[in-house]
Amino acid sequence: MSDECLIGQAQPEQYQTQIQEKSTRLTEQFARFNPPELEVHPSQPSHFRYRAEFKIWHEGDRSFYAMFNPLDRKTPVEITNFSIGSKLITHLMPLLLAEIHLFDELRQRLFQVEFLTTLKGQALVTLIYHRKLDENWEVIARELEAKLNIHVIGRSRKQRIVISQEYIEESFEVNGKTFDYRQYENGFTQPNATLCQTMLNWAVEQTKDRTDDLLELYCGNGNFTLPFSMNFKQVLGTEISKTSVNAANENIALNHLDNVYIYKMSAEDFSNSLLAKKEDETISRRVARMDLSQFNFQSVFVDPPRAGLDIDSCELVRQFDCILYVSCNPDTLEQNIEQLSDTHKIVSFAMFDQFPYTHHVESAVKLVRK
User: Fold this and answer.
1) Pick from 226, 222, 193, 184: which is nearest to 118 by CA?
2) 83-127 residue pLDDT tens
3) Full-model pTM
4) Is residue 174 part of a domain?
5) Number of CB atoms found within 10 A of residue 56's CB
6) Are 294 and 361 within one domain?
7) Which of 92, 216, 239, 349 has CB atoms 3.0–4.6 Å from 35's, for a disulfide?
8) In terms of residue numbers, what domain contains 310?
C-alpha cells in the first residue's frame, strides 16, 4: 500500500467520489471484453487497515512514528493520526510509544514497528532493532505483552525472539460458516480484513453448486482455500512460500477439513510441468506425488501477485471450464483476460476497494468457456 495514504491523505468526506472514480476507470478499462455490470464493494472509510508498519524516528529524548513521502525519502513525516488503522492499532499506538519512552531496553536503536491485528481483537507487534537483543530486553518485552495484551516479537540482524507466539488468530464468516485462521508474522494476509471477508463470500457465491474439484494457484495461507472446501469435492492448492504452506496446513487441521490438499510449488513450475514445457525430473516427481488422477478438475482459482499470471500459467488455466481470478493489479488482469478471451468470457465482474485513498484497487472476474 502506498505511503500517501498512511501519511495522512485519508479524506472520508471524499470517499464516495473516489470510489466512483475507481469503478468508472475499471469499467472503461474492461469494456471491450463485454463484462456484466461491475459489482462495487466499498471499504469502511476509516479503521479498515489491519496491518501497518512504521519507522521509529528519534530526536533527542523523543521518539515518534514516521513515514516518508514517496517524493522525499529523507524527511520523516510524523504520524499522529492514523485513522485508517484498525481500532486496535490506533488504540495500541500511543500506549506502545509511551512504553518505548519509559524503557531504554525497548527504545535503544529501535527503528521499525510492525502491527498485525485481526477482527477477533488480537494483535502481534514486531519491534525491529539495529542492535542485538539481550535477556534484559526479553524481560521488558514479556512485561509489555502482559500490560498491553499483545504478542511481541523482537528482530535484529540474524536474531528473532518470539516472546509467546508468532501468530494471531482470525475468524471469517463465510456463507453462514466460521473459518478459523492462524496469521503468522511475516506471512501474507489481506490488509483490509472486513473487505477480505466480503471477497471470500463473493468467491464462494460464484462457485456454489459445483460438483467437480478445484485447482488453486497461489493459495497462500489458505485464505480462500478453506471456504472453497464447502463447494468442491476436493481442493488442491499450490504455493511457493514455505511459511504460507505451513500456515495453510495448520489452518486445514484447525478447521478439521479432509478434502483440501496443499503442495509447495510455484505456479510457474506446476504449469510448466503439466504443459510439458520444461523437463525437470525433480519437479516432475513432485507433481507425480500429487496423484492428479484422483482429481476431476474443471475449475481453477488464481490470486496472483501484481505481475499477474505468466504466459504458461495463463495457458494452463485456459484448460479449465470455470476460471475465478482475483487480482490486485487491473493492468495485468487485463493482459491475462486478453490472452484468454478467445476461449472464455466474463460472466461476473467485481471490484473490492481494499485500498481506499490510493489508486490501487482489487478486482475479480469469473470466466467460463464460450
Assistant:
1) 193
2) 999 999 999 999 999 999 999 999 999 999 999 999 999 999 999
3) 0.92
4) no
5) 21
6) yes
7) 349
8) 8-45+192-369
